[in-house]
Amino acid sequence: MALMQGQKDAVAARLAGLPAPAASGWLADAQAKAEVLLLAQALPTRRDEYWRYTDPASLVAAEAPPAKRFDPGDEVPAFDGIDRLKLVFVDGVFDPEASDDPTLAGVVIERLADAGRVAGHWAQSLYGVLAARGQTPVARPFATLATSRARDGVVIRVTAKAARPVALVYVHAADTSDAVLHHVVKLEAGAELTLLESGPGAARLTKVMEVEVGEGAAFHHIRVQGRDHDRRAATHVFAHVGAGALFKSFTLTANGRLTRNEAVVDLAGAGARAHLAGAAVGDGAFHHDDTVFITHSAPGCESRQVFKKVLMNGAVGVFQGKILVKPAAQKTDGYQISQSLLLDGDSQFLAKPELEIYADDVKCSHGSTSGAIDETALFYLQSRGVPRPTKPWPKTSAAGRRAGCNAMPRGGEDDRHHRPSGQLEKPPAGPASPPGARGLGTLCLHPASRVPDPDLHRPMAGRGT
Amino acid sequence: MLTISNLHVKLEDEDKVILRGVNLTVGAGEVHAIMGPNGSGKSTLSYVLAGREGYAVTEGSATLEGEELLAMEPEARAAAGLFLAFQYPVEIPGVGNMTFLRTAVNAQKKSRGEPELSAAEFLKLVREKAKTLKIDADMLKRPVNVGFSGGEKKRNEILQMAMLEPRMCILDETDSGLDVDAMKLVAEGVNALRGAGRSFLVITHYQRLLDHIKPDVVHIMAAGQIIRTGGPELALEVEANGYADILAGGN
Ligand SMILES: Nc1ncnc2c1ncn2[C@@H]1O[C@H](COP(=O)(O)OP(=O)(O)OP(=O)(O)O)[C@@H](O)[C@H]1O
Ligand SMILES: [Mg+2]
After folding, report:
1. Residue with CA nearest ligand 1 atom 12
2. Whose CA is nearest to atom 17 of ligand 1?
3. Which member of A19, A340, B9, B185 has the lowest number of beta carbons within 10 Å of its beta carbon?
4. A446 has pLDDT over 80
């Protein structure tokens, strides 16, 4: 498809806004190759099929729109209580001073640029490769941008069970910082790693993480995106999951002007499992987009997608989730649910769940629901002493509640299909409520009534960065 | 403890009048029962006391230990010691029963300026109380009341009451839907809370609950008014003869 001049100009301007490429060795070649690909792909506009619900303009803009840093007050930093190996990036640049010594039993950690100079380095066969593979049939130009212009990143090779989690901490310092990061993670057969990510990273963050999960290996990813109100982020995880391996990822997002989190997972070996989950709480100028593409390439694999959002004061939530089952992937078990709680009539939830199945012995389900808060449930809570937060939960009349429900559809209505009975009894990651649930599913996420639940993952219990 | 004077209530959005001058005083440590035909306004009275929206108080007042109840938010009434066990407990999908209980207990403690319970203290307490009500661990993990049987919902109400330790407990038909054994469990749960000046207002249609929870005073409500007040024998009279005579004779 021939690109319009305007699209070419937009790519050129975006690239010109970033520091010139400084890599050497194979990395320089890989980045140059990605740049050629980017020029062919162009950056998205709202006309692109997967950008209809999310306006990419501020991600495309040559300069990062300014974003003030969030003042956490006396809030404890995310993952603070966990014994972890910390690697700190400030506005997208590795800060060795602030980071821990990267020696860890069972793990080899290197800076991307250093790995890039070593001919025949293991990362060479993955860098930009998983990302490129994950762009058929849908191009992901911001991933290509990150591959071509990553200023920094880490490459992590895990050969055994990592002694401690590795934590990537993304500090936002300058008001207009524009960070581009690209990490590569490789877990050898049977290896195990927990990777923690926290922080906004910059005023605007463009990021790719490629993960190869070897046979029988387990990768746990837990992420808390920064609290800065005006930050913007386009993040991508590309995972290739081997036989009997496990890939798990959870993201908690509170605040952020624009967040697009893409996850592209290929269940490539028999019996591989992928569990992806996200919780987002948005108040006001908040647009959060989870775009997930899971491919079942091998037989007997299991995938779970559970995404929940609480939206108020005009916040917008988007979920685009796809399960593709290839002909060889018999005995596939795929499940996807996205739910949003709209606390007022101004907020919106837009969902686009997709199933594409080419095998016949398959168990797949998807569902998407959104609802307003239930007044009776609210009264029940109040009658037990739980206060009704004054600002975000306005007292709505029945008419107001109906308006709230009507404001959201455009695909946001309940559209459950192919839901075999028995599926709901085993919700995947974390405490999921059944599809169709309307109510205060996210009670514990509201700051005014936040309560750590023994059943919830401790590190995510409402902390920020 | 609880004093209701000349309480008149209508529906907020309609001209339907439900309570027509209710007078009722429950002293500290007393157990009062309210009986009365369907639709006479018993649940409405309990909802208005608890602060549910949709009702307009056109006249009268209600005080809890001298404090004017009707001006308070529902959560403030709860913190002041009022508890309503619902006739129809509400399902809240997505909120774990345990989370709900802990949120409620700590919210009340907080509003009274008391220290909150730690996770460990809370768990110990809830397990202990759940055990006596034969509520299993699975029910504590599930979303509040979702998929609970009728009897399980009622036992869950009593568990909440036991955890919150209110001063004034209103039980709206807590006995309906309970099997014989569950009724005993619930009655034991209630009796365990008796004493220490705690008061109860028990709404019921049947004498059998009152066999277990002995009332000091029995009221009959009809068409939005208390039309007769007496001792425990009044409940026996209703059980034997129905409401016809009482309705005809008035007080
Ligand atoms: N929100 C409402 N909308 C319409 N009518 C209502 C509402 N609330 C109460 N009513 C009416 O008010 C009257 C009293 O109802 P209420 O539920 O208080 O009766 P009750 O004494 O508790 O009856 P039961 O013994 O059947 O539980 C009924 O006629 C009922 O239909
Ligand atoms: Mg009733």
Report:
1. B18
2. B43
3. A19
4. no
